[in-house]
């Protein structure tokens, strides 16, 4: 009797256990990012107490990439799920077919609404007085195929200079560019946040041109995701974007600038004072407070990449954009 009773209890326990849903582990989202705070995305998840979904439906595994063209390779290898990407790499990704991806949100823009963008910098006491003076000179870019690279090519082409024929390009990390310029190893470098302010503070540098001089407003950076990943994880991606918007709007609120600078300093292991007064203000890249990309500017930017001869056919960006996840996140927060 006892044996039959124990067997009945075991059976009943198994039935009850089968009817109780198991607690699934949060989805680990693998995200690629670039130079912080220009690329703000990893910072938005550092102030976890204000987030609604982090640690519940998803967690984040963030990895730094020197350029979006390199991050794209990781996307193609399925080593990333979501990544920052420049307009330049986006056009190549679409035409090469190495990765099926969709634009899911904005990340940053150059030359928009009075905000700071990257600038191309020369020594003030050096021989470069105009773009024409770059003929025969050496120019540093963060990576070939990056947005910086194509913005530079667009301006030089406008002035009648062509790559390989009229100048030499070398690759360098953004933090190393100031030293290369001052040591006269190169004749022009990219000055972008946070390094541009440091260059100006030391003096003897001058802006030769800006990306928007040849391109107008530049929808420079976007968040993209693999289409397969999106289809498999709609709920988690929507939760991710809801937290993204919460974090973004907190960082962009002027009353939080000092605390946001402290979070940035901790993330980068630098003093908070290095970011106070300029980060996440008009002295920084423009970021739409609803993370909605400027698709008109983006289409124009992709047309520029085609006009440079980098890609052989024009791209209509609309089929490669899916803002439904962002729209759902905005609706939750009353931002539509």
How would you characterize this protein structure?
By secondary structure, this protein is α/β, with parallel strands linked by helices. It contains 12 helices and 10 strands. It has helices at 2-19, 68-76, 87-96, 147-158, 177-182, 195-202, 212-215, 227-232, 234-252, 257-268, 295-307, 324-332, and strands spanning 27-33, 58-64, 82-86, 101-110, 119-123, 138-141, 168-171, 189-191, 205-209, 218-226. It has a 5-stranded mixed sheet, with helices on both faces. The chain has a 3-stranded antiparallel sheet with strand order 8-5-9, with helices on both faces. A two-stranded parallel sheet has the order 6-7. Strand 6 (138-141), helix 4 (147-158) and strand 7 (168-171) form a beta-alpha-beta unit. Residues 15-22 have low confidence and may be disordered.
The domain tally reads: 2
CATH topology of the largest domain: D-Maltodextrin-Binding Protein, domain 2
The assigned CATH architecture of the largest domain is 3-Layer(aba) Sandwich
Helix share, percent: 25-40%
Proportion of residues in extended strands = 15-25%
Please report the distance between the alpha carbons of the first and last residues: 66 Å
Question: pLDDT below 50 for ≥5 consecutive residues: which ranges?
Answer: 15-22
Average pLDDT = 91
Largest sheet: 5 strands, mixed
């Amino acid at each position: 009797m006892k044996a039959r009773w124990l067997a009945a209890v075991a059976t009943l326990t198994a039935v009850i256990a089968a009817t109780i849903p198991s607690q699934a582990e949060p989805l680990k989202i693998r995200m690629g990012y670039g130079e912080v705070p220009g690329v703000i995305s990893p910072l938005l998840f550092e102030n976890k107490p204000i987030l609604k979904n982090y640690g519940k439906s998803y967690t984040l595994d963030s990895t730094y990439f020197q350029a979006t063209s390199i991050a794209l390779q990781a996307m193609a290898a399925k080593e990333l799920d979501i990544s920052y990407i420049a307009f330049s790499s986006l056009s190549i990704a679409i035409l090469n077919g190495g990765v099926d991806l969709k634009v899911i949100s904005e990340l940053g823009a150059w030359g928009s609404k009075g905000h700071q963008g990257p600038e191309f910098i020369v020594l003030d006491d050096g021989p470069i007085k105009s773009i024409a003076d770059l003929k025969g000179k050496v120019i540093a870019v963060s990576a070939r195929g990056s947005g910086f690279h194509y913005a530079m090519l667009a301006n030089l082409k406008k002035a009648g200079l062509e790559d390989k024929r009229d100048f030499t390009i070398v690759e360098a990390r953004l933090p190393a560019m100031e030293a290369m310029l001052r040591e006269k190893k190169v004749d022009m470098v990219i000055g972008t946040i946070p390094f541009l302010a440091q260059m100006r503070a030391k003096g003897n540098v001058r802006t030769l041109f800006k990306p928007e001089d040849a391109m107008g407003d530049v929808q420079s950076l976007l968040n993209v995701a693999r289409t397969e990943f999106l289809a498999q994880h709609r709920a988690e991606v929507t939760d991710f974007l809801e937290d993204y918007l919460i974090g973004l709007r907190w960082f962009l609120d002027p009353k939080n600038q000092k605390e946001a600078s402290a979070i940035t300093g901790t993330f980068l292991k630098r003093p908070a004072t290095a970011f106070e007064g300029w980060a996440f203000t008009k002295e920084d890249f423009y970021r739409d407070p609803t993370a909605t990309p400027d698709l008109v500017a983006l289409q124009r930017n992709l047309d520029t990449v085609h006009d440079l001869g980098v890609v052989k056919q024009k791209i209509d960006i609309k089929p490669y954009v899916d803002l439904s996840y962002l729209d759902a996140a905005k609706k939750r927060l009353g931002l539509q």
